[in-house]
């Protein structure tokens, strides 16, 4: 999406410049290693202090415990973090659930450090390819900034961390992590063949890089594009889905976004209907500045589920649009993604989406639409399974659980004691949310966790056995090949 100058910037540190533009295809307008030991909640309980937890000690109370609301002292823009009070968290252990399958990829993402652990040296090596360092000590979060992130990504991401601390008070281990907030992966495997790679957290990963995948900022909101927190957005999309039945939707493949951010998007535009041909694709260009002037009235995600088929195509790297597109109940067509985010690696071609190859995309789109229009029940069911994947596996509780397990596993690998860097500042609800106004503030408040969790995090699945993983990937490839060669088994 965002692709005009106004929405583009680059940050440079040292010799490297990372071009950062938002990848959003708006179309809509747009997953391991706890290994076998499960966390012992009770023994782990320590005194937590967290900014803003003016709490209320939660003894023997299995229910969600309300947490104090955001209190901003009137007119004071230099809000300071309040003193905090210990809080104890005793979730009801009897109500554990299993984590979704994609959590198994946490084990894979941390594998590069499995035998060595993570040393301070390794961590510091990631400094020049990170936007900031996040430190958590005794439940309090600190940030040391190195390079400004694009738009308000960093703010919404660290806000998400504060919510996690609030949901599971006292349960998040002390740690230091490096965070990259751009689009493109930064820890290239080929650069770290003789030396351990730095562990760098990032919104997406790719097979040739070691970036550790973490939920992107849009789960808490995307202020610049007026996109509300995921929980609200998915609710609205689902309401929108009820308004127009699959069979009554336009029988074409739809994409709307900013084509200028990536060549593959420009290629997609060539598949648009014209006097010469009709590949069954309907492609629309978005200019975000214009949409902004119209207050985003034409780019509401919930109004974009009017086609039977929806196309997902990457921008500079992964695009946050993917979850919105797939949640539409339309059959999603994914144009050969190169990048993945935390939840996508367990999605199965022809079960949750229809794979389209980058090379032959116009013909493949046409083939897929023709197939769907000739097999409406199957196409509709495919679309629905994709949506169900999003609804069931991406409940906000699971997003937090993913963060929880990833950070917990990471902390177990740390071979050094976290410390607060001199330049770091404490972050808390007050100093983040009080000094600001407008849409940013309303999104922060809307995505606030208002009580601790009544239940513990879901139970981590074990790592994949290497052979099983290989098989899984092979199966996926076979399915994709079936579509490419158009010899589809009769499913
Ligand atoms: C980051 O620093 C390391 C030395 O610690 C250096 O080898 C590497 O080239 C630097 N990377 C960038 C992108 O500047
Ligand atoms: C904001 O709060 C600080 C600390 O309490 C105080 O020193 C300052 O005068 C306040 N500023 C305003 C504008 O109220
Ligand atoms: C695709 O074709 C439609 C119908 O002609 C047109 O309205 C639309 O602007 C075209 N999209 C692009 C990106 O050119
Ligand atoms: C927390 O409360 C605020 C209002 O005080 C509300 O806007 C927000 O949506 C609530 N958070 C959640 C996750 O429901």
UniProtKB/TrEMBL annotation:
> Where in the numbering of this chain does the Glycosyl transferase CAP10 domain appear?
171-417
Query: Which source organism?
Result: Crotalaria pallida
Q: What Pfam families does the record point to?
A: Glyco_transf_90
- According to the record, the signal peptide region is none
Query: Sorted alphabetically, which keywords does the UniProt record give?
Result: Membrane, Transmembrane, Transmembrane helix
- Record-linked InterPro entries: CAP10, O-Glucosyltr/Glycosyltrsf_90
Give the source's domain of life in one word: Eukaryota
Its transmembrane ranges are 20-42
Q: What is this protein called?
A: Glycosyl transferase CAP10 domain-containing protein
């Amino acid at each position: 999406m965002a692709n005009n100058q106004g929405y583009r910037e680059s940050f440079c540190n040292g010799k490297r410049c990372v071009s950062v533009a938002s990848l959003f295809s708006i179309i809509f307008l747009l997953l391991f290693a706890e290994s076998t030991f499960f966390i012992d909640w009770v023994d782990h309980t320590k005194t937590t202090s967290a900014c803003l937890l003016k709490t209320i000690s939660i003894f023997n109370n299995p229910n969600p415990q309300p947490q104090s609301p955001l209190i901003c002292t009137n007119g004071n823009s230099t809000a300071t973090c309040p003193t905090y009070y210990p809080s104890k968290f005793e979730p009801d252990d009897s109500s554990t659930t299993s984590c979704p399958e994609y959590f198994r990829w946490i084990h894979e993402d941390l594998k590069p450090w499995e035998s060595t652990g993570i040393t301070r040296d390794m961590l510091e090596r990631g400094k020049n390819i990170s936007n900031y360092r996040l430190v958590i000590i005794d439940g309090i979060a600190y940030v040391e900034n190195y390079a400004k992130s694009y738009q308000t990504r960093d703010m919404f991401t660290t806000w998400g961390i504060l919510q996690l601390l609030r949901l599971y008070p006292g349960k998040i281990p002390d740690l230091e992590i490096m965070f990259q907030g751009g689009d493109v992966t930064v820890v290239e495997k080929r650069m770290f063949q003789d030396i351990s790679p730095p562990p760098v957290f990032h919104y997406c990963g790719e097979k040739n890089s070691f970036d550790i995948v973490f939920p992107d900022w849009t789960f808490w909101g995307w202020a610049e594009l007026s996109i509300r927190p995921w929980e609200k957005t998915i609710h609205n999309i689902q309401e929108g889905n009820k308004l127009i039945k699959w069979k009554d939707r336009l029988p074409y493949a739809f994409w709307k976004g900013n084509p200028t951010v990536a060549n593959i998007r420009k290629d997609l535009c060539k598949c648009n209907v014209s006097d010469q041909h009709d590949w069954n694709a309907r492609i629309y260009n978005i200019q975000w500045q214009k949409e902004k002037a119209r207050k985003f009235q034409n780019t509401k995600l919930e109004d974009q589920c009017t086609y039977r088929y929806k196309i997902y195509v990457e921008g500079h790297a992964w695009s946050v649009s993917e979850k919105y597109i797939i949640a539409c109940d339309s059959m999603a067509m994914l144009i050969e993604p190169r990048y993945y985010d935390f939840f996508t690696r367990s999605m199965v071609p022809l079960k949750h989406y229809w794979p389209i190859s980058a090379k032959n995309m116009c013909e493949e789109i046409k083939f897929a639409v023709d197939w769907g229009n000739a097999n409406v029940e199957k196409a509709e069911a495919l679309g629905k399974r994709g949506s169900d994947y999003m609804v069931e596996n991406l409940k906000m509780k699971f997003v937090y659980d993913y963060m929880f397990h990833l950070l917990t596993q990471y902390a177990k690998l740390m071979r050094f004691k976290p410390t607060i860097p001199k330049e770091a500042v404490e972050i808390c609800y007050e100093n983040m949310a009080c000094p600001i106004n407008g849409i940013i503030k309303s999104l922060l408040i809307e995505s606030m966790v208002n009580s601790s969790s009544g239940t513990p995090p879901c139970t981590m699945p074990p790592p994949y056995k290497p052979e099983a993983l290989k098989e899984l990937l092979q199966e996926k490839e076979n399915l994709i090949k079936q579509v490419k060669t158009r010899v589809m088994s009769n499913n």
